[in-house]
Amino acid sequence: xxxxxxxxxxxxxxxxxxxxxxxxxxxxxxxxxxxxxxxxxxxxxxxxxxxxxxxxxxxxxxxxxxxxxxxxxxxxxxxxxxxxxxxxxxxxxxxxxxxxxxxxxxxxxxxxxxxxxxxxxxxxxxxxxxxxxxxxxxxxxxxxxxxxxxxxxxxxxxxxxxxxxxxxxxxxxxxxxxxxxxxxxxxxxxxxxxxxxxxxxxxxxxxxxxxxxxxxxxxxxxxxxxxxxxxxxxxxxxxxxxxxxxxxxxxxxxxxxxxxxxxxxxxxxxxxxxxxxxxxxxxxxxxxxxxxxxxxxxxxxxxxxxxxxxxxxxxxx
Length: 317
Prior knowledge:
The protein has nine helices and six strands. The protein is of the alpha/beta class. α5 crosses α6 and α6 runs antiparallel to α7.
């Protein structure tokens, strides 16, 4: 019987890669990072997944998993299914903040250890490129070595991974197949390609979640929350597309156009922005006719207020 548990859902993901299943997480990280044999991760410590805010203005950043290996390398793993316009900036922020946050006043820079960010996404970040796994480092054209190995970002696009169950040639192939198809797997009848004992053990963890009434209830709650967040993020993507479209229209307006036409463009942009932001916030969505009866100044005020409240809730609008 299939597990019925999606391993990309936060509750299941953290159960599979928990402290109790440390060997699974170590195997997963080595499959992604592919370090030299002498630098294979042998042990890890789980550390907090909430970055403390040092001031009221700092962003609160929450990631799925953060670990420190035996060499002191700090590894952030984030499962992000929806990708909004500022996604790359946010991931870079996570990495840089973690790296800089290692030092306190008076500490020597030599104490800094590498920070590695691993982002697993369902949408395509780089649709023009075929590979599903990229490693980004600080490099320069014409230089034979990176500027530093202290900051590294890995992106894994699940949407590009299409290997079949009997053609999983690497440990990473097996893990990505598990992440994409975990809810359809049957622990008693696994595909031939899922030969690694650690990946098979991960499927067993999903099966145990499905058999436990309490675990299943917690999983379903998280599944619903994730679905709500995906709907919200979908609206964010639509909002960003609408803003980008409006910005393009505004930029394309030729000098000398009549003021009425410009105001019409502005009014349409503001009405669309307000309606989408109200959906994101869960507010009643005002009608187009009602909004159209308001002045441009009032529409701009409403849009700014909605955007402010969305940002206070941590939404990247």
